Amino acid sequence: MQRTQKWAFRLALTLGIVALAVLVLKGSRATSVARPQAQLGFLNAIKRGLGEGCPFGGNSSSTTVVNNLANFLNSRSGIVLSQAVKDRLIEMETQTMYGGRPRKTISDISNALCDTWLERVGQLTDSEIAQIGECTRTAVDVPFTSSQGVMGRASGRLIINSMSKWFSDATAYRDASTPGAVAARTATPSAIYDEVDRRLQVYEQALPDQWNRSTGYTPVQAFLLSYSAVADDLLHQSPAELTQAMQALEASLHQDFPSCQTSCVNRKPYGYMGYLYSTHIPYLFNETVQKRLMDRL
Fold first, then answer.
1. Domain ranges within the chain, ordered by starting residue
2. Pure H helices in the chain
């Protein structure tokens, strides 16, 4: 778990869940400065996770690629892609494979995700924002305390300990009702671009035959990357390794919070009530959001 958080810390960026942007996006910007190579252990973990769970390239049909995606997302976060979403992704992927649809650039993906994100944020009700705050944190089973606040990224880097502070910042970001919120919304496109760019750099290092910015990315890759950014799932580690990480966290929680009899059995590591890191996927990456994202790809 410490190793996971160490690397997540290095890769976690300033794309907060709704209102976290108010606090951290003010100074964020995309950069073309070369970044250091990821450590070999983490790259191997990407190969065992993304590389084996959702491979791209080769002679796989569009249907196989999309089915791999659906199984991969479900195993990691409990997301169930509807048949309508899968059918549309198959069509888009087929068109791309046969040259009828151009592959996507980093800018294409980040722009589509940013527009979809801001659109969804603008539709959130006060009640939904409060529920997102309650859900968005590591050790989500532990009662809300000063040490287990709203956690904007899985690394634990961005924490708001007061739920009232979370709510006021989140609603301000939604409404662009304060100077800080306006500045944060203005900075959001750069932050999302940086999120996309940094993740792609790692995937390109680990899986250069599948992820290559010079040739561009397919719609399914763009869809998967968008999920990764929203859920803060780095797509690393095999299913067995994720189970081991959840069991280690469970043992730690039982030791630190004896009254909390949480269990990782039948739980997913990411997504809604994710045991390693929880995000409110039903609000932030539901079928409507998925379709709007595809509209922009």
1. 2-295
2. 2-11, 20-24, 40-46, 52-53, 62-77, 83-97, 106-123, 126-135, 163-175, 179-206, 219-231, 239-256, 281-284, 287-295
Closest CA to 275 of 264, 283, 266: 264
Q: Is the dihedral of CA 252, 12, 165, 130 positive or negative?
A: negative
CA 137 to the chain's CA centroid: 13
Structure tokens at 197: 């760019």
**3-class state of residue 165 by DSSP:** helix
Residues 6+ apart with CB under 8 A from 149: 137, 159, 160, 161, 162, 163, 166
Q: Say what the pLDDT of residue 103 is.
A: 96
What's the DSSP call for residue 37?
P
Q: Is 66 exposed, middle or buried (0-12, 13-18, 19+ CB in 10 A)?
A: buried
The least confident of 227-241, 250-264, 269-283 is 250-264
pLDDT, tens digit, for every residue of 114-125?
A: 999 999 999 999
pLDDT over 50 (residue 26): no
Are the CB atoms for 241 and 7 separated by under 8 Å? no
Residue type, 168: S
CA 222 to chain centre: 12
pTM to 2 decimals? 0.86
